[in-house]
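Can't attach files on this board, so I'm pasting raw text. These are the components:
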Amino acid sequence: MLQFTVNEKLCTRCGLCAADCPARIITQEGKALPSIRPDQEAECLQCQHCLAICPTAAISILGRNPDNSLPLSADSFPRLDSMSRFIRGRRSIRKYKDENVDPALIRQLLATLANVPTGVNRRALTFTVIDDKAVMHRLRENVLAALATAIKAGRIPERLKYLQNAPPAYYERKEDILFRGAPHALVVSAPPDAPCPAEDVVLALAYFDLLAQSARLGTVWWGMLKMVLETLPDLKALIGLPPRQRYYYGMLFGIPAIHYPRTVQRDDAAVVKRVSL
Ligand SMILES: Cc1cc2nc3c(=O)[nH]c(=O)nc-3n(C[C@H](O)[C@H](O)[C@H](O)COP(=O)(O)O)c2cc1C
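---
Top answer:
Structure tokens for the assembled complex are below.
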């Protein structure tokens, strides 16, 4: 049940909701109120565009009260120059303070992150969070011990140099190649039957990267997690991932212990091609 309701007094019959509906299931003609035929409800993407676009907050769907939405004006979004500086200036952080991030801030970040776009608006993402540095430390110790054992047993291919080097670096030099000393991590996963599981996972983490850095936290993509877990899949259980989970990726985060006073300079780092037909 979509619970699509229109406040008769507020609705101006402007037709914007019907015109914007990506599934084209809202009809609005003349002085009639916008409506969705019951037999078309299953086609709804549940994107809530109808609620979002209504100029008079007349539409409710999925039980959402439009008055609970954040109001938006032309000035609500960051400007291009600040986004540009932000994207150029955000860095992978590999040095963290040995402190937990405020749990309320982590909750706020994850609630915001639930708003990221997903293919066909499936929203089947799972956010697995390590929000306690003591838990992170136990994970670190477990993973490194398992890796050291696997190396001794010849189960780690020579070509996986990072994995080969991680235990000696950690035990002999206190260098944390795998976890970068981060107190927290977010692992985003998606089921294989989602329309775009790989894209959804990476996209959510890309948003998290920016969101967390806007809250003055440090982040670093956690490709090493995938390398470890695809080499030793039994370890997936440590973070509650099923052994055959395929679509997942991680990001480390925490309070940065370093500051970069300037951007890097990579405006020419991508090949730009122009299509002309
Ligand atoms: C998909 C992906 C996986 C990554 N995995 C790791 C990782 O496991 N450990 C690490 O220290 N950095 C990792 N990085 C960070 C990159 O090395 C980093 O983005 C790059 O050196 C550029 O630095 P910047 O992010 O500060 O611009 C990863 C980055 C990406 C995009």
